[in-house]
């Protein structure tokens, strides 16, 4: 279950796709290999986009430069940014168009709004990758991780959204600390739970985006089967 290669493509690879590449590095680089390119690449990245990525997000803009489609490796997930961009010569396992207007030359407010939209879509794409939308084996592994009464109880205890100390979880479960650590490792590997250490205790919280994505995939699967195999 290696990281998929995700390519963000627009016409000039000077603004929207560069923003998406930066956001993916910042918010989803742990689960995807990120690239961007343009069908007709510009000579340089939009200076206002670069400035705002640096000032608002602390991104190192030195790594950003327009690239052609020929610079891309084999792509698993292709995201076109809008404006009717098509890449018929570029093969990919999955294609999706985000339909975003080009904010170039429209001022900082338009650029910042586009950045916020792209940030949320990148976070959503990360959740879908972790959930297993593009890898059936990963989805099956995630469902297996949830297929235990204690783990389902842990999800229930974390559902409110508040971070919980392992000590609090142990007080609610009739299991030992090593057993809790085993269950939490399975949920962390699935991306369902995030953790941080504070002193001698681990603290956990749910990744609701990933759980929502898993639920959506199950709903799509059930709807598909109902359409394929209608009840007589």
UniProtKB/TrEMBL annotation:
PROSITE patterns, per the entry: HTH_ARSR_2
GO molecular function, one term: DNA-binding transcription factor activity
Keyword Iron-sulfur annotated: no
Keyword set, alphabetical order: Arsenical resistance
Positions in coiled-coil regions: none
Classification via InterPro entries: ArsR-like_HTH (IPR011991), HTH_ArsR_DNA-bd_dom (IPR001845), Ptyr_pPase (IPR023485), Ptyr_pPase_sf (IPR036196), WH-like_DNA-bd_sf (IPR036388), WH_DNA-bd_sf (IPR036390)
Annotated signal peptide: none
Organism superkingdom: Bacteria
UniProt-listed GO biological process terms: response to arsenic-containing substance
Domain named HTH arsR-type: residues: 131-229
Name of one Pfam family that matches: LMWPc
Protein's recorded name: ArsR family transcriptional regulator
Source organism: Collinsella intestinalis
């Amino acid at each position: 279950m290696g990281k998929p290669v995700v390519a963000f493509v627009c016409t000039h690879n000077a603004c929207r796709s560069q923003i998406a590449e930066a956001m993916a590095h910042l918010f989803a680089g742990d689960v995807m290999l990120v690239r961007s390119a343009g069908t007709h690449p510009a000579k340089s990245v939009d200076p206002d986009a670069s400035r705002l990525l640096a000032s608002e997000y602390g991104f190192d803009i030195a790594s950003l430069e327009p690239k052609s489609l020929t610079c891309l490796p084999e792509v698993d997930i292709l995201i076109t940014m809008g404006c009717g961009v098509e890449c018929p010569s570029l093969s990919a396992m999955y294609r999706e168009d985000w339909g975003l207007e080009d904010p170039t030359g429209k001022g900082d407010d338009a650029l910042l709004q586009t950045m916020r939209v792209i940030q949320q879509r990148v976070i959503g794409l990360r959740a879908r990758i972790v959930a297993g939308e593009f890898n059936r084996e990963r989805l099956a592994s995630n469902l297996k991780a949830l297929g235990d009464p204690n783990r389902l109880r842990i999800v229930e205890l974390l559902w409110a959204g508040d971070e919980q100390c392992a000590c609090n979880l142990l007080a609610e479960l009739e299991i030992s600390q090593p057993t809790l650590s085993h269950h939490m490792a399975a949920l962390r590997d699935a991306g369902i739970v995030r953790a941080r250490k504070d002193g001698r205790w681990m603290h956990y919280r749910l990744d609701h985006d990933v759980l929502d994505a898993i639920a959506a995939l199950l709903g799509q699967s059930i709807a598909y089967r109902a359409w394929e195999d209608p009840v007589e």
